[in-house]
Amino acid sequence: MCKDDLIVLANDSHDWDEPHPEKKLFPPHALAGTRGAETVVSEALEKAAAPAMTVSKTRYSAFFGTGLADRLRGAGIGRLYLAGGYAPISACSTPPSRRTTRASTP
């Protein structure tokens, strides 16, 4: 990792009063404006060699309605490395939508 890379922290932030596909699968969680929707950044990440940004997402994909594609293009990011706290959903839902960024995943 170097200073030309970008760390993106994508975390859930839901308005449970809005229509939402997760409502049938999960109980209310990460409600907008609550601590559950906040990004927890460790001291190690604050001292990372690359800059970090947070994206609040309302769906499984980090690209859906977040402006992430435009931010990546604007930052000149062309390669994505994905990880997630619950990889079977979020990290697996983001790669198909990465096509909008014209970025590659290794």
Secondary-structure map:
Blueprint: E1 7-12, H1 43-46, E2 52-57, H2 68-74, H3 90-97
Parallel strand pairs: 1-2
Write a structural description.
By secondary structure, this protein is α+β, with helices and mostly antiparallel strands. It has a single domain (7-101), classed as Rossmann fold (3-Layer(aba) Sandwich), CATH 3.40.50. The protein has three helices and two strands. The chain has a two-stranded parallel sheet with strand order 1-2. The model is unreliable at 100-106 (pLDDT under 50).
Strand content: 5-15%
- Indicate the structural class: alpha+beta
Integer-rounded radius of gyration: 14 Å
CATH architecture: 3-Layer(aba) Sandwich
Helix fraction, binned, reads 10-25%
Average of the residue pLDDT scores: 77
CATH topology: Rossmann fold
The total tally of domains equals 1
Keywords:
3 helices, 106 residues, Rossmann fold, alpha+beta, globular
Short description:
This protein is of the alpha+beta class and 106 residues long.
